Amino acid sequence: MEERVHNRWEIFKTKPYLLYFIGHTVAMLGTGMRFIAITWLIMDLTGRSSTVGILLVASAIPGIIFSPIIGIFVDRFDRKWLAVLMDIFRFLVLLLIPLFWWLEILEPWHLYLAAFLIALGEEVYTPSAMILIREVIPERLLLYANSTNTIAMQVGALIGASIGGIIISLSSPFVVIFINACCFLFSAICLVNIRKGRVKPEYGGRGNKAIDFFKELKDGIDYIAKYPKIVVFYSMMFFIRMALYTINVLLAPFSKNELQVGAAGFGYIDACFAVGAVIGNLLLPKVNAIKGPNWTMTVGMFGIGISIFLFGFSNNLIVAMGIYFMLGIMFQVGVLYLTKAQEQTDINFQGRVHSTFNTFFAILSFAIYLGMAFLSEVYSFSILYGIQGVIIIMAGIFAYFSILKKNKEEIKYVSRSS
């Protein structure tokens, strides 16, 4: 126990990671504030709640269109500077919204375009930062770094949403958006100081020859085919992401129409997920060390499926909050799958591998945001949650035969004792 606590704190003794963590936490705080501000703003400009769905769709499009190309760039250029540039890019995009408002030319399509551009920046930033962490953190501490990053994301979203709501009530959404822009600028400053100089990926040197995008894209796909274990881990991440998209779409109407707990109840339920996520990430390294990664990954999938299935039958706020809290804990098994996928992938192919799978994730999110809006009008929420729960349980069975039963020896690299 003492060693695991030591390892949790050891990552903060690494100055590059500490700088990344501080910048990442501030950026996530701003992002949590922005979501409530920009949704409030689009509804205020249009007078229609359906426009929030358009914002979500606009956010999903960059991943569908650009992910494969982004993966090639991430594998070719210094990841630190890519992450820095994307923070500055998002800072500038967000800065235009209050500027357009001040000039009295702000239109709804400006917000849709901003959502698209911010999502594009995130598509480049995420794999760049993911690989950057591998550059500055010892392999044995990677799980702790990933789980700590997720804690920062959940805490930032939880606190940011609360602070954003207060600021909006006292001033306006534009103040919140300006603060979020400054948060990205602060993150960029932190990233600049992570290390000196440039680090050119080994795979990226082809002299002055033009980049053969299709060949490099094929190289990434061939790499995945060569190491099929990666497919298993990313497949589980696919199912976890699918479940998360589904419950995000269904929670608001379920809270309003089935539980009849209003906006406040919806906020309580959503907050329970964030609290569970923080606790889950604190527990994840400990459970992984005691039970092993194979057991943790397979049982985690069953836990997600069962929790989602039961949530559809919640009949009051307390039960819903309790199950959503457990969902927050169980969903963090995705951090372990991510860590395993990172460890199994050559760092020089990480961008293309991640972006190849991210393309499918983006298509999935696009389809779910549209599909769930339709299905929620046709089927009951208990049926929709039940189907999703069964799908995840089946994925858990697949994980059992692919990871636990087929591979009895412990998976290497994911630190059990670290």
Structure description:
Helices cover 82% and strands 0% of the residues. The termini are close together. The protein has helices at 2-13, 15-46, 51-76, 79-102, 108-136, 142-170, 173-192, 213-226, 229-259, 262-291, 293-311, 317-330, 333-343, 350-375, 381-405. It is mostly helical and 418 residues long.
List the helices and strands and how they pair.
Blueprint: H1 2-13, H2 15-46, H3 51-76, H4 79-102, H5 108-136, H6 142-170, H7 173-192, H8 213-226, H9 229-259, H10 262-291, H11 293-311, H12 317-330, H13 333-343, H14 350-375, H15 381-405
Helix pairs in contact: 2-5, 2-6, 2-7, 3-5, 3-14, 4-5, 4-7, 5-14, 6-10, 6-13, 9-10, 9-13, 9-14, 9-15, 10-11, 10-12, 11-12, 11-13, 11-15
Sheet-strand content, in percent, reads under 5%
**Contiguous uncertain segments of 5+ residues:** 204-211, 409-418
- Give the total of beta strands: 0
What Rg, in angstroms, do the CA atoms define?
A: 21 Å
Instruction: Count every helix, treating DSSP H or I runs of 4 or more residues as helices.
Output: 15
Distance between the termini: 10 Å
Major sheet summary line: none
Tell me the structural class.
mainly alpha
Give the overall pLDDT as a whole number. Answer: 79
Q: What percentage of residues falls in helices of 4 or more residues?
A: over 70%
- String of helices and strands: HHHHHHHHHHHHHHH
What is the overall shape?
A: globular
